[in-house]
Amino acid sequence: MILETARLALRTLRGNLFRTVLTMVSVTIGAFSIVVMLSLAESGQRTLSAAIEQIGGMKMILWIPSEGRTTTAREKALYDKGLTDIDLDSLRSVPRLAQVGSEATYGSEEVWAQADNRKKADIVGVGDGVLEILNWDVSTGRLITREDGEQRLRGAVVTTPLVESLFPGQSPEAVVGQTIFVGRKPYAILGVLEKRDMMGIHFGFS
User: Fold this and answer.
1) Distance from CA of residue 181 to its chain's centroid?
2) Main-chain phi, psi angles of 46, to 5 degrees
3) Is 142 helix (H, G, I), strand (E, B) or coil?
4) What is the mean pLDDT of the chain?
5) SS3 193
6) What pLDDT digit, counting tens, does each position of 18-39 carry?
7) In a 10 Å sphere around its CB, with 0-12 CB exposed, 13-18 middle and 19+ buried, how is residue 131 labelled?
């Protein structure tokens, strides 16, 4: 019975060879497409996970004030004051809180080392710990420390693309210690951040 069924099936396939080939090709293409789409989806998920992990993975970040909400006069007064060192020290005492840092964004400014070569860059004021929380280390030099803030040191840590724009032909190691101007104010370059490919996602600043 089984052999007879197999012979009948083969005769049917040979009798409709063109339709058989088309069916086999369609099934093959369909299966191949599903495998390719699943592989692309998995690869995209891995890439996105790697990008998120590159900035430190799971983080709780609080923006004050939150965007898209009208603030009251009292809230504006508090926001203008900002978080104090006492506030940050209180947060550091919270159980199971790994690290605390604070930052303030100042928008885009002209940055230059030579007057005839000015570039726009995002200016971010950071306390110690912010770049560590973002898991963003320097390729050369050092990060900003709490002592820098206490001494009111005019120091800056800059990204690799900005260094390449402001100091063409110079290595990151060579620019550490040199002076850049943010607007009209001079800052010493303390370090150069390692280069990152964030797929166009800047996570707040570039």
Assistant:
1) 25
2) -65, -40
3) coil
4) 80
5) strand
6) 777 788 888 889 888 898 898 8
7) buried
Q: Which residue has the tokens 């303030």?
A: 104
Q: Which of 83, 188, 178, 198 has the alpha carbon at shortest distance from 130?
A: 83
Distance separating alpha carbons of residues 16 and 59, to the nearest angstrom: 62
Tokens 């005492």 — which residue? 93
Residue 190: both structure tokens together: 């303390």
- How many angstroms separate the CA atoms of 92 and 67, rounded? 25
Structure tokens that stand for 156 in this block: 């800056």
* CA distances (Å), origin 78, targets 53, 136, 200: 33, 30, 34
pLDDT at 108: 86
pLDDT at 65: 56
Which residues is 126 bridged to in the sheet?
Answer: 103
Which tokens belong to 27?
């099934």
Instruction: Of 174, 130, 132, 184, give the one whose Cα is nearest residue 154.
Output: 184
pLDDT confidence of 76, banded at 50, 70, 90? Answer: low
DSSP E strand boundaries for 8-126: 103-114, 117-126
| Tokens (6 digits) for 34 | 């599903």
- Look at residues 20, 19, 22 and name the one whose alpha carbon lies nearest to residue 30: 22
Q: What is the mean pLDDT of residues 112-128?
A: 89
Q: How many whole angstroms separate alpha carbon 192 and alpha carbon 205?
A: 15
